[in-house]
Amino acid sequence: MDESTPTGPGEGPAPEDRLAAELREFVAERHWQRYMRPKNLVMALSAEVGELSEHFTWTDPDGAADLTPEQRAEVADEIADVYIYLLRLAGSLGVDPVEAALAKLVKARLKYPARPSGADPDTLREAPETPE
Fold first, then answer.
1. Each residue of 119-128: pLDDT tens digit?
2. Which among 49, 85, 89, 101 counts the fewest CB atoms within 10 Å?
């Protein structure tokens, strides 16, 4: 991502670009660049997703969003870890995650067209949790 990409007229870099720059600086200050390889980043990302999942394992699906303030803070930390590793992975591979997500959404819209208003949701063949 390019730190100079503005989000709008006179607004400066996009938040994702600012964060990516902060992450690069954080890694450089600690001389961790040699560890920031795709394999390591994918493994770390997977571990962090597991830690995030722990907060919802064996919870009631209907009450999973009903977190205490302390639980919400812990989940927010895990989401941050996942996001950070995902941004680092994307950066290491030269992938703009926002552009990749927008392109994926275009594919998902083609694969899963919106049903007409009033259509019976039970007539859908597939109802994926997330686009493939």
1. 666 665 555 5
2. 101
Asked if residues 27 and 12 have their Cβ atoms less than 8 Å apart, the reply is no
In this structure, the number of other CB atoms found within 10 A of the CB of residue 107 comes to: 11
73 to each of 15, 32, 70, how far by Cα in Å?
A: 21, 27, 5
User: What distance in Å separates the CA atoms of residue 113 and residue 76, rounded to the nearest whole number?
Assistant: 32
pTM: 0.75
What is the Cα–Cα distance from 68 to 104, expressed in whole angstroms?
Answer: 34
> What do you get for the CA distance between the two ends of the chain, in Å?
24
Secondary structure of residue 6 in the 3-state scheme: strand
Q: How far apart are CA 93 and CA 69, in angstroms?
A: 36
Question: Which residue is listed with tokens 């571990």?
Answer: 47
